[in-house]
Amino acid sequence: MKLTGVKKLTNSKFLNMYKLDLINKSGNKKEYFVASRREEEELAALTKNHNKADAVMIIPITENDEFIILKQFRPAINDFIFEFPAGLIDSGEDIIGAAKRELFEETGLEAINSEIILKPSYTSVGMTDESISVVKMLVKGEVTSDNAEEDEEIEVIKIKKAEGKEFVKNNNVSIKTALAILTI
């Protein structure tokens, strides 16, 4: 495939649609549609920069060996799903700074220490160039969702790491969160 053109179709603050014009190996023209959090000149299809993280997912673990998980409403499914805290990396922020900010905003907790365990990686490469990094954090403090943004419906819960597999099996858990729980 060869990329021959890009057209921005929407103009939204957090997510936009782009039409990619392509020519396949037989010389036939194709259109492909991509959702992106990036401005046109920063699209991975154009820059081929695979080291940029748009967002961060945090795996918070307490000193009592508990995962901190959010039960969060997501408009795309019009329902609640269990997932680890996550959010966009603001302009000028690094991965760890964004992770600490999002952790506090969504859970009220502070990081004792942190480790990037996954460099920027694409979330659903068949439809978006969105990439996230994953940060594991040992956390402390009192759990609260009082600092969440106005449009976030969040309930913060704790589950014992030892009960993680059963939790994933019996609940509506995002794939990123499920995989992290099952492998850590």
Overview of the structural elements:
The protein is elongated and about 60 Å long. Strands 7-4-9-8 form a 4-stranded mixed β-sheet, with helices on one face. The chain is built from 4 helices and 10 strands; from the N terminus they run E-E-E-H-E-E-E-E-H-E-E-E-H-H. Helices cover 18% and strands 42% of the residues. The mean pLDDT is 95. The protein starts with a strand and ends with a helix. The protein has helices spanning 44-47, 95-107, 164-170, 175-183; strands spanning 2-8, 16-23, 29-36, 55-62, 66-74, 79-83, 86-88, 110-122, 131-140, 154-160. With 184 residues, the protein is of the alpha+beta class. The longest helix has 13 residues, at 95-107.
Write the layout of secondary structure elements.
Layout: E1 2-8, E2 16-23, E3 29-36, H1 44-47, E4 55-62, E5 66-74, E6 79-83, E7 86-88, H2 95-107, E8 110-122, E9 131-140, E10 154-160, H3 164-170, H4 175-183
Keywords:
single chain; alpha+beta; 18% helix; 4-stranded mixed β-sheet; 4 helices; 184 residues
Brief digest:
The protein has 184 residues and is of the alpha+beta class. The chain contains four helices and ten strands.
